[in-house]
Design brief:
Length: 267
């Protein structure tokens, strides 16, 4: 079922979203050569618990981390590990969720350890911009696939033929981390459920430099590109409000990210 939140419940989700934003900021500061993904996981968990919240991911269907830490060709769901050491030039997707007062926030960023190559910098920028293109279409009166189509158009507008990972995508979010509807990162506009105030969605494009085909590793979690090409992943939780999209996991509510699209969020 699609869960529609009251204005008060959206405010509660905003509080959870800010916990996630703070946790990701703390982890980003610690992303340096020589750090392990397990150490980064501990930083995120400490921040979340210090804020009075609970990590969404820890224990979810047996997952052992408070973040997903996906490196280079790992698209999503990488398991943090104290033996996994990051090196200069690695790309790292940090996906993090928190539960506060029964409500979830969910967000992800991709960063490079040290200075990125030109190719990595472009991949990351393209992926992040496509997320904001989708968030800009999270407006009352539209349809779900307006978001999907905006993400796809943003990615395919580039000369380099980036891959859009099939099947995986965003989702509804609220009192559970994953709710209906599923939000693909491609498709024709004007289809699917109507976007109404109180609907909250996690928008999360996953983009590859090469073939977008993926495979899940034997650990039952980590999703990698079949051809070994690098991937990037971004995510924000957004609430649809009468005043416009409210990006609950962005510190500024989405002001800076939505500005290039001419959209003013509630904040």
């Amino acid at each position: 079922m699609i869960q529609i939140k009251t204005p008060h419940e959206v405010e509660l989700m905003r509080a959870a979203g800010l916990v996630v934003a703070g946790a990701i900021a703390a982890v980003r500061t610690a992303v340096l050569p020589g750090v392990t993904t397990g150490e980064l996981d501990a930083i995120a968990e400490d921040h979340i618990r210090s804020a009075g919240a609970v990590p969404s991911f820890l224990g979810y269907h047996g997952f052992t981390g408070s973040i997903c830490a996906s490196v280079n060709d790992e698209v999503v769901h990488g398991i943090p590990d104290l033996t996994r050491t990051l090196a200069a030039g690695d790309n790292l997707s940090i996906d993090c969720g928190a539960i506060l007062a029964g409500w979830h926030g969910d967000s992800a960023v991709t960063v490079t350890v040290g200075e990125p190559s030109a190719a990595d910098a472009e991949l990351i920028a393209v992926t992040e911009r496509s997320m904001w293109a989708g968030l800009a279409r999270a407006v009352a009166g539209g349809r779900l696939t307006d978001i999907s189509h905006a993400v796809e158009e943003s990615i395919t507008a580039h000369q380099h033929r980036y891959g859009i990972v099939d099947h995986y995508g965003g989702h509804g979010i609220g009192t559970e981390m994953h709710q209906d509807p599923h939000v693909l990162n491609y498709g024709r506009a004007g289809r699917g459920p109507k976007l109404v105030p109180g609907l909250a969605l996690a928008i999360e494009p996953m983009v590859t430099v090469g073939d977008p085909a993926t495979v899940e590793l034997e650990d039952g979690w980590t999703v990698v590109t079949k051809d070994g090409s690098r991937a990037a992943h971004f995510e924000h939780t957004v609430a649809i409000t009468p005043e416009g999209p409210w990006v609950l996991t962005a510190e500024d509510g989405g002001v800076a990210g939505l500005a290039p699209f001419g959209v003013t969020p509630r904040h």
